[in-house]
Write a structure and sequence with these properties.
Elements: E1 32-37, H1 39-42, H2 51-59, E2 64-69, H3 75-88, E3 94-98, H4 110-125, E4 130-133, H5 145-155, H6 180-200, H7 213-219, H8 235-242, H9 258-265
Parallel strand pairs: 1-2, 1-3, 3-4
Helix pairs in contact: 2-6, 3-4, 4-5
Length: about 290
């Protein structure tokens, strides 16, 4: 399983504030999750039209969740679509991939389906997102059960998400797609798995400045210097609390360093309006 997380190191500290309790992996102040797949990702059979991605969004109200489900798609079609879509959205924190039930109609090899899913997963992983690859959901169609079992056997060594474990009880009257309660169960299960991965694979903050090393690379700050511009504010505070320049010691250009404004003047480091003078010392006048 470790091969799915080549850019992620075990946790050493907390940094880049979590959003709705989940890791903002790339420190861009957004929690972005992409769900890729076919009609089961799209939400066919859900009266609300939300599917599991939309229902997950209700559980994570501050997240950006993109539903890239395409009803009827098979994995040969999914491979080029994944390449295009993940290239268009390179800043996702998590990517969830599930597809392959429609390959049944291709009289296809389940090994080929697995290989295509690896390609789809790799397109997601190339963005740096934490990538999740799921087994297929159960079906109630007797004729399709052997196919689902065969694909899931192929995916078993490489999957890190198991929607199949939710059983046939989540499947609706068409015997293929989940019903409303089923999609809700998928959303809750996925949230639980995201939380588990969140803590196991939290990135490193080498200098303890409140920003992961991967975030330091994005903002141009130093992963080994907690105050990259030497203004008296930790890099994490500059980016996530005060919105000041992590490489500019005087963001508003008023002659006072950002740290001095915050720590001594208790003023806004983004405003160059005149500050209250600070008396550095008082010398007694000589007697007359």
């Amino acid at each position: 399983m470790s091969g799915l997380f080549s850019l992620i190191a075990p946790a050493t500290s907390y940094a880049c504030p979590d959003i709705d309790g989940l890791l903002d992996f790339n420190c861009d102040k957004k929690l972005e999750i992409i769900a890729f797949g076919d009609s089961i990702t799209y939400g066919t059979g859900d009266p609300s039209g939300l599917g599991y991605p939309g229902r997950l969004n209700l559980l994570l109200p501050h997240a950006i969740i993109r539903n890239f489900g395409d009803p009827g798609e098979n994995t040969p079609q999914g491979v080029p679509r994944a390449q295009m879509l993940f290239a268009m959205y390179p800043n996702a924190d998590y990517a969830v991939n599930m597809e392959g039930v429609n390959d049944y109609w291709l009289f296809y090899s389940s090994a080929n389906t697995k290989n295509n899913m690896v390609s789809i997963r790799n397109s997601a992983a190339a963005t740096g997102a934490i990538t999740m690859l799921s087994s297929l959901t159960a079906v109630k169609r007797e004729f399709q059960k052997p196919w689902v079992a065969s694909v899931n056997a192929q995916l078993s060594p490489i999957k890190n998400l198991d929607f199949f474990s939710l059983g046939e009880g989540i499947i609706g009257s068409d015997k293929l797609h989940p019903n409303a309660a089923g999609y809700q169960a998928m959303a809750q299960y996925l949230l639980n798995q995201l939380i588990a991965l969140n803590e196991v694979y939290r990135p490193v903050d080498t200098d303890g400045d409140g920003m992961y090393d991967i975030g330091e690379a994005i903002y141009g700050s130093s992963p080994t210097n907690p105050d990259s511009d030497g203004d008296g504010l930790l890099d994490g505070l500059e980016v996530f609390t005060y919105n000041t320049g992590v490489l500019n010691p005087d963001t508003d250009g008023d002659g006072f360093s950002d740290g001095f404004e915050v720590n001594q003047l208790q003023s806004n480091p983004l405003s160059n309006k005149p500050k209250t003078p600070v008396i550095q010392s008082i010398e007694a006048l000589p007697p007359t």
